[in-house]
Amino acid sequence: MQWGSGRQEGEGPGQVFVGFHDRQLDDKGRCALPSAYRPDLGDKCYVSLGDEGCITLRTVPEFEAHAQELIEQERRGEISHSRRRAISVTSALVSIDKQGRFTLEERFRRHAGLESGAPVVVAGTFDAVEIWKPDRFWAVEAEGQDEEPGRQWDD
Questions:
Q1: The pLDDT of residue 152
Q2: Of 18, 70, 102, 109, which sits 20 to 30 A from 90 (CA to CA)?
Q3: Which fold is adopted by the domain 20-59+92-147?
């Protein structure tokens, strides 16, 4: 499946990342982004430890909005300062080179079970992009398919 950004030319500032793409980390731990995602991610994005053992990429504006929401959640007593700090210190601003590659630090690769030179799945989640070890991705994706009403067949 080779889908990309759902944003149409001339539409507002938002982005929609959909579909999945098979990629491979190079020997330096770099990942090449799908060309469809590159215009919306720009030349920098934020990388964070994602849920379920993946790595999450967000555009700078999306990450800044997410950070502001976490600050507000702490002020309202919905999350602790420790939780907010844990998210902050496990995130990093990365540069995307002219070939659409960015380097995943060792701590991010370790979290996602990735090794240099290994295959990865790059998946859109509407407002973010996730980097997965393929077997983890397919296991989690299958769970999500089971949750979707109307997707069960008996034949």
A1: 56
A2: 18
A3: Chemotaxis protein chec (3.40.1550)
